[in-house]
Amino acid sequence: MYIDNLGPYEDKVVTVRSINNDEFIGKLLSYTDDFIVIENPRSVLINGPDVIIGPFLLTADASLVPMQLNNILCIVATLPEAEQDYLESVKEETDAKESLEEG
2-102 has which CATH code? Predict the structure, then answer.
C-alpha cells in the first residue's frame, strides 16, 4: 500500500496533490489506511508568472486538517525553497495570532 512509503515524510513538510489537481503544502503529522493529517496546510496557487501559497481554508481554523487518501494523487517531499516559504507563512500567522491575543 502507498501508506507504507509515508514513514520518512512523517513530521516533515510535504506537498500533496489531490485527484482534482489541487496542490497543498503542509506538515504531515500522521496517517492511517484511509487518512492523512496535515498541520497548517496551505494552498499552492499560480499568480501570473509566480507560484504563491495562500490559505487552505478562508472561513475556518485549518491548524489540523484530515484528508482522505482516496482523494490524493501523491504525497512528495517539498522543494527546499517552497518549504522555506511555507515555514515563513506559518510563522507570520502564528505571530499575528499571538499579537492579537496580547492586544
Answer: 2.30.30.100
